[in-house]
Amino acid sequence: MNYLEFEKPLAEIEGKAEELRAIGRSNPAMDVSKEAEALDRKADQMLKDLYKGLNPWQKCQVARHPDRPHCRDYIEALFTEFTPLAGDRNFADDHAIMGGLARFNDQPVLVMGQEKGHDTKTRIERNFGMARPEGYRKAIRLMDLADRFRLPVITLVDTPGAYPGKGAEERGQAEAIARATEKSLQIGVPLISVIVGEGGSGGAVALATANRIAMLEHSIYSVISPEGCASILWKDAEKMREAAEALRLTAQDLQKLAVIDRIVTEPLGGAQRGRKEAIAAVGKAIEAMLKDLSGKKPEALIRDRREKFLAMGTKGLAA
Q: Are 171 and 276 within one domain?
């Protein structure tokens, strides 16, 4: 288990409980089960106390936890007959965005999202979930395909933002993101999005301009990272805690502002501590959102999407 900064007291207690169990295993004559169970109860209560009042910066840390389920985990668990599609038919295949045809509850769909990777090798291969222009052009191609064959589009968003490298800028990063966002507004099929970790900047918006948007309870969604915001406003990246408060990037704030439609409850301790439960909860949210949009005509879906985004931010401003 990878512990976050604010979880250090919890790590100490759980570590002591494990040490006691190790002593008991090495010396069967020594009964330490009661002491270990007492520490377990103390750790459970501390975990509840920690997660019932997370501040925005702590939620950022949870959203970025390396052990949270990523796009590939959700696709493998919730979808069947997944057939990956690669390339933008122009420059290259971007591994940060994965997508393809699949079935969800036996319904044909198109699913795609940012994949961060699970170890050093795959994180480098996936560019830590930061797509280049060809990734967004691949997303456009897949949305066109879904529109042509009347397939609902499901996106799983988890990215710090679009890749800001020189090559990406030279190949038209801003234009690619803008066109992906435009395409999201144009397709006449249900488009639903779930932010499962980080929803960073235009790199997230390009896949989250949807009819229905859900966020995991401890995920974040913002125009800029807290560190980036602090660097610009205060010329000090260490003020990221203040920036996280000001950005209103939590699922709870964004639901009040009508930016998202629903919050998906995470297991106690975050999705990283209950991966199966978190994935199952996302599956139920996707099912409910698809049901909500089923039977709507293309014109109604496009109008619904446009009106949704025009109304964003007009609620909860006085809160």
A: yes
Question: Both tokens of residue 81?
Answer: 């007959």
The count of domains in the chain is 2
- Classify strands 97-104 and 80-84 as parallel, antiparallel or unpaired: antiparallel
Pair 39, 65 in one domain: no
Question: What mean pLDDT value characterizes the chain?
Answer: 92
The Cα–Cα gap between 61 and 124 comes to 20
Cα separation, 251 vs 165, whole angstroms: 29
Query: Can you tell me whether residue 227 is helix, strand or coil?
Result: helix
Global pTM value: 0.90
For residues 133 and 171, the answer to whether their CB atoms sit within 8 Å is yes
* Paired strand residues for 104: 107
Out of 86-90, 120-124, 187-191, 219-223, least confident range: 86-90
Confirm if 138 and 88 have CB atoms less than 8 A apart.
yes
- Decide if 30 contacts 163 (C-beta within 8 A): no
Q: Do 39 and 88 belong to one domain?
A: no
Tell me how far CA of residue 109 lies from CA of 58, 105, 214, 217, in angstroms.
35, 10, 18, 25
What single DSSP character describes residue 210? -
User: What is the domain range of residue 101?
Assistant: 60-311
Q: Please give the single-letter amino acid code of residue 30.
A: M
Is the pLDDT at 290 greater than 50? The verdict is yes
Burial class (CB in 10 A: 0-12, 13-18, 19+), 5: exposed
